[in-house]
């Protein structure tokens, strides 16, 4: 499925880029980076909540509110 393809693509990039990217780099890492960047740029927590697929803003704030 799509998730497997994304993981395969990330694995291929990691092999190609070697030490240029952290070994723990995963598609999920991009999700956290995206949410954090949105909040740091001033996006309202409800916008980030919807983008992340959270049921309520408190989940978003619990995970990313520290930024």
What tags apply to this protein structure?
67 residues; mainly alpha; 4 helices; 69% helix
Describe the protein:
This protein is mainly alpha-helical. It has 4 helices and no strands. It has helices at residues 2-17, 27-40, 45-52, 57-64.
Residue share in helices? 55-70%
Taking all Cα atoms into account, the compactness measure Rg is 14 Å
Report the uncertain regions.
Answer: none
Number of helices: 4
- The percentage of residues in β strands lies in under 5%
Main sheet attributes: strand count, strand direction, barrel closure: none
Coarse morphology: elongated
SS class: mainly alpha
The helix/strand order is: HHHH
Q: Termini distance? A: 33 Å
Mean of residue pLDDT?
90
The number of strands is: 0
Compact overview of the structure:
By secondary structure, this protein is an all-alpha fold. The protein has helices spanning 2-17, 27-40, 45-52, 57-64. Helix 2 (27-40) runs antiparallel to helix 3.
Chart the SSEs and their pairings.
Layout: H1 2-17, H2 27-40, H3 45-52, H4 57-64
Helix pairs in contact: 2-3, 3-4
């Amino acid at each position: 499925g799509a998730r497997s393809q994304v993981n395969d693509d990330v694995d291929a990039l990691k092999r190609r880029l070697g030490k240029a990217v952290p070994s723990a780099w995963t598609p999920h890492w991009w999700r956290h980076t995206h949410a954090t960047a949105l909040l740091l740029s001033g996006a309202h927590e409800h916008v980030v909540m919807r983008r992340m697929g959270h049921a309520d803003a408190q989940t978003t704030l619990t995970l990313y509110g520290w930024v």
